[in-house]
Amino acid sequence: MDPIEYVFGTGDGVTTAWVSPPDIDLSGDGTLDAVALDFDGDGRRDDAMWDSDADGIADVVALDRDDDGRGHEFYRDDGSGVWGETAQRPTDLASPPPEPEVTPAPGRVADPAPHRDREPTDTDDAVVVRSADLDGDGTADIELVGTRRAGIPVADRLYVDADGDGRFDRVLVDSDGDGRADVSFDDRSPRFEAR
Asked: What is the tens place of the pLDDT at every residue in 139-195?
């Protein structure tokens, strides 16, 4: 049983990601595909974060406002962690639109030495890595990953070894380039990219 990731936010761009094992079947196909929780604040775990397309990420919230044990209102996340986009019928939710294909930027290279700075290259978007051993045990506890723009390193991800076991288990991502983390994923998340 793979966990389901779901994200909450206040609409200001800062979100918090959660990962939980699915515990209910909303599609009715016999597979656990949703996480029961109290989304509407009525004190009952009768709402659900639903992974309707089975990709490991909740894409629909189902609300049971009349407490009869069935979701009657369905909403999607608008991308900011605010689940406010109304979905009319559950059948509309089974096939979300395909995601656009993303092509890597030209000149993007993998980092051959993850625990030191890379030398600048002729391309402005080469991966830059900086790491630090905060506890002095000889392994990196944090690692910044990003790009060089006009020769200046600009980080967009911070990897953290929170438990000191020598591997990164959390990443903070600045997706809009404002210098603040917008979302955080732990290593159980399908969106966590290992270093």
From this structure: 888 888 887 766 666 778 888 998 888 889 998 888 777 777 888 888 888 788 776
- Rounded CA separation 35/23 (Å): 5
- Phi, psi angles (nearest 5°) of residue 8: -120, 150
DSSP string, 28-43: SSSS--EEEE-SSSSS
pLDDT, residue 32, reads 92
15 residue type, one letter: T
Identity at 104, one-letter amino acid code: P
Please tell me the distance from the alpha carbon of residue 192 to that of residue 195, in angstroms, as a whole number: 9
C-alpha to C-alpha distance for 46 and 98, rounded to whole angstroms: 30
Q: So what's the pLDDT on residue 22?
A: 92
Q: Could you tell me the CA-to-CA distances from 182 to 84, 102, 113 in Å, in that order?
A: 19, 20, 27
Backbone phi, psi, residue 105, to 5°: -65, 145
Separation of alpha carbons 177 and 130, rounded Å: 17
* pLDDT above 60 for 48: yes
Mean pLDDT of the chain: 75
pTM for this model (two decimals): 0.48
User: How far apart are the C-alpha atoms of 144 and 131, rounded to whole Å?
Assistant: 6
Q: Which residues pair with 180 in a beta bridge?
A: none
3-state secondary structure of 90: helix
Compute the C-alpha angle 108/112/118, nearest 5°: 70
